[in-house]
Amino acid sequence: MIQKSFQITPEELPEKEVWFAMGYRDSVPEARIRDYVLGLRDRLVPQATLRYMYQVVEAEKLSPRSVRMGGETFTPEGIICSYLEGMTHALLFVGTAGWEYDRAKEALKSEGDIVSDFIADAIGTVLAEMTVARIESDYDDLRTLSMPYSPGYCNWDIREQHILFSLFPEHPCGIVLSDTSLMAPEKSVSGFFAMGKDLQRQPYHCQICKNTKCYKRRKG
Amino acid sequence: MDNLYNAIFKGLAPVAKTSVQEALDSGKTPQEIIDDSMIPAMEAIGREFEAGRVFVPNLLLSARAMKGALDILKPLMMAGQTTTLGTVVIGTVKGDLHDIGKNLVASMLEGRGFKVINLGTDVSKERFIEAAKENEADIICLSALLTTTMDYMKDIVDAVRESGLNVKIMVGGAPLTSDFASGIGADGYSSNANEAVAVAKQLVAV
Q1: What is the pLDDT of chain A when averaged over all its residues?
Q2: Cβ contact (<8 Å) for B56 and A22?
Q3: Containing structural domain, residue A204
Q4: CA nearest A61: which of A218, A195, A214?
Q5: Tens of pLDDT, residues A126-170
Q6: CB contact, 8 Å: A114 with chain B?
Q7: Which of A125, A169, B94, B160 is the most exposed place for a label (fewest CB within 10 A)?
Q8: Of B57, B148, B191, the CB nearest to A118
Q9: Amino acid A215: pLDDT
């Protein structure tokens, strides 16, 4: 089990990803919105300590809908399982923008500006996703890594997050999971990368998913 | 178009406040200002959003400018006059702490003339009913972002119907569909904040 934490400078926050999380997709926000984002970035990012934890476990695809990882059976459904041919192991992870960011966001909310609140939410989303990118870049192995997959996306029932968390120590990285599978701090992520020498890393095929409102949805 | 219309359309809150004062000084009544400039500006930005020419932050900026202008006008309204199209009690259902989408809907409703009672997140059916009674609400608005919490919406709809309250119920949130909404007995569903205003207006027959 690997656990790490890190901080980033405001300039390291990928601005375009923040715009994407704000709903701009391939568009560029007007200058005043970009300035708004930069102002909040400079205020909030220094307060965040990002944390992540991961482990590699044995894994196999059981059926077109299900897999076994770390001795537990999961049902990520057909979209995700279609990417898992050749999986022999899985890298299970959790990551979070942290309680510090949660508190900074709450303090901002108390100022009553809904525009700031919206942008802070998008920044938090990107910070949490940065932990996943850090895990991927940290991991040094000859086996191919798939894209990351998370409960609650691509038709994978979010309730299976409880099974995933059962494979980690209690409250990994300080993350608390509610009965309704809600993670706290709010800006947290969990999931797995499939691993295998014969695995083919494939891009997300968002066009075959029916969830057109998914914030991760990409063209193609 | 006048300065106030432009200020609200462009989401320029300080300019909107100045322009409201200018409109008052020119002899317009608060109701005329709201009807002639403010509501049309919010409707116009809503149409731009629906057409994909502006984005959520633009809606928020306009709603914020509208609210600032309304705050100046409300104390000047004569007894019997109203700035509201109806009263909405809104909240994210029990077990769910997501509030960005719900707050966006609240802002848009407020900006387009509804009185909004925002109960926050993790709201029980009892609290929704209590707030609807207290505020004589016309609409209860339920939000959920999780598939694990959206089912609680049916409990709320059933409890509201059993309470005998004469109130419409509308629902929204990423995992919801119009089929789900009608399946649980809700009166309305919207997939985004701008559409929520249209649905709310329909429910109170404005």
Answers
A1: 92
A2: yes
A3: 2-208
A4: A195
A5: 999 999 999 999 887 778 899 999 998 888 999 999 999 999 999
A6: yes
A7: A169
A8: B57
A9: 62
Quote the ipTM score. 0.84
- How many whole angstroms separate alpha carbon A181 and alpha carbon B125? 20
Phi/psi class of residue A123: alpha, beta or left (left: φ > 0; alpha: ψ in -120 to 50)? Answer: alpha
Of the candidates B97, B103, B191, which has its C-beta nearest A114's C-beta? B103
CA nearest B57 in A: which residue? A115
Does A131 fall in a domain?
yes
A158 inside 8 A of chain B by CB: yes
Do residue A117 and residue B149 have CB atoms under 8 angstroms apart?
A: no
Number of domains in chain A: 1
CA-nearest residue to B104 within chain A is: A114
| Mean pLDDT score, B108-130 | 93
* Domain-embedded: residue A25: yes
Identify whether the C-beta of residue A121 lies closer than 8 Å to the C-beta of residue A92. Answer: no
Q: Does residue A174 belong to any structural domain of this protein?
A: yes
Instruction: Locate the chain A residue with the closest alpha carbon to B61.
Output: A115
Q: What is the pLDDT of residues B45-92, one digit of tens each?
A: 999 998 999 999 999 999 999 989 988 998 887 665 666 889 999 999
- Written as six digits, the tokens of A121 are 């939410």
CB atoms within 10 A of CB B190: 21
Q: Which residue has the tokens 């089912």?
A: B151
Is A83 inside any structural domain? yes
Taking the Cβ of residue A113 and every Cβ of chain B, the question of whether any pair is shorter than 8 Å is answered with yes
Q: Give residue A220's pLDDT band: very low, low, confident or very high (50, 70, 90).
A: very low
CATH of residue A202: 3.40.109.40
CA dist B111 and B109 (Å) reads 5
Contact A181 B146 (CB under 8 A): yes
What structural domains does chain B harbor? Answer: 2-78 (1.10.1240.10), 87-203 (3.40.50.280)
Specify the pairing of strand B188-189 against strand A2-6.
Answer: unpaired
pLDDT at A132: 96
Contact A152 B146 (CB under 8 A): yes
